[in-house]
UniProtKB/TrEMBL annotation:
Residues 22-32 have a biased composition (Low complexity). Residues 1-45 are annotated as: Disordered. It comes from the Bacteria. The lineage of its organism: Bacteria, Pseudomonadati, Pseudomonadota, Betaproteobacteria, Burkholderiales. This is DUF1845 domain-containing protein.
Length: 209
C-alpha cells in the first residue's frame, strides 16, 4: 500500500490589488521572423525573456547579485518566466508590515518544503537523473534569495515524488496532491507580493482581512 502524506491546509490568499503585474510586451519587428528555439533536453521550452525584467532593472540598475537556478519542472519554468522578476521587484521595494508578511510566507513555504522533502527521502527510493535547465536570476534582497531557495526545494519535491512513484512507494494520487500543495505554497508568495506597502499593518497582517 502506498504511504499517504498528511498535507498542510491551503495557505490564505489575499485578493489582488490594483497594482497588477504588467504583461510581457512583445516588440514588433519588420525583420524576418526567427524560428523558435527547439526544446532543450529536458523537454521544457527555453525561456527567451523573463516578464518584468525592465522593472527589476529600474529598481536595481547595477545589481551584480545573481544566482544560478537549476530546474526540471514545468511549474518552475513557468513561475521563473512569468512571476519571479515581479516578486523580486516587489521584495526590493517592500517596507514595514509587508516585509514581515513576505518573511512569514517565504519561511513557512521553505519549512513546508523541507519537511516534505524529509518525508519523501524516508521512502529511500532509487534516485533518477532528470535533465534540467539553468538560468541566472537577480537577487534584489535576501528574501528574493529565499524565494529562489523555495523554487529549488520545489524541484526536489518534483523529482523526489517521481522517484517514489516509480519505486511504488507512493501512488499517483499522492504525488498529484503533494505537487498541488507545493504549487500553492509558491503561488501564495505572489499573492502576498501584490498589495502595496500601505495595505499591511506593522505585524504583517493584511488590512481588512
Amino acid at each position: 500500500m502506498a504511504a499517504v502524506l498528511e498535507l498542510p491546509s491551503d495557505p490564505d490568499r489575499p485578493a489582488d490589488s490594483d497594482d497588477a503585474r504588467p504583461a510581457l510586451a512583445l516588440a514588433a519587428s519588420s525583420a524576418e521572423p526567427v524560428p523558435p528555439a527547439p526544446p532543450a533536453s529536458s523537454g521544457l521550452k527555453p525561456i527567451a525573456r523573463l516578464t518584468s525584467d525592465s522593472r527589476v532593472a529600474r529598481i536595481v540598475p547595477e545589481s551584480d547579485a545573481v544566482t544560478v537556478l537549476l530546474y526540471s519542472s514545468q511549474f518552475a519554468r513557468d513561475f521563473i518566466r512569468s512571476d519571479y522578476n515581479f516578486c523580486a521587484a516587489k521584495i526590493a521595494v517592500a517596507r514595514g508590515g509587508k516585509v514581515r508578511a513576505l518573511e512569514t510566507a517565504l519561511r513557512d513555504a521553505a519549512n513546508w518544503f523541507r519537511k516534505t522533502n524529509e518525508w519523501i527521502s524516508r521512502h529511500d527510493a532509487r534516485g533518477i537523473e532528470l535533465p534540467h535547465e539553468t538560468i541566472e536570476l537577480i537577487i534584489t534582497r535576501p528574501l528574493a534569495g529565499l524565494l529562489v531557495r523555495c523554487l529549488t526545494l520545489f524541484d526536489r519535491v518534483f523529482v523526489g515524488t517521481l522517484e517514489a512513484l516509480l519505486a511504488e512507494k507512493i501512488s499517483s494520487t499522492d504525488r498529484a496532491n503533494i505537487l498541488t500543495n507545493a504549487e500553492k505554497r509558491i503561488k501564495h508568495i505572489v499573492q502576498v507580493c501584490m498589495p502595496d506597502n500601505d495595505q499591511y499593518d506593522f505585524d504583517g497582517e493584511r488590512r481588512g482581512q
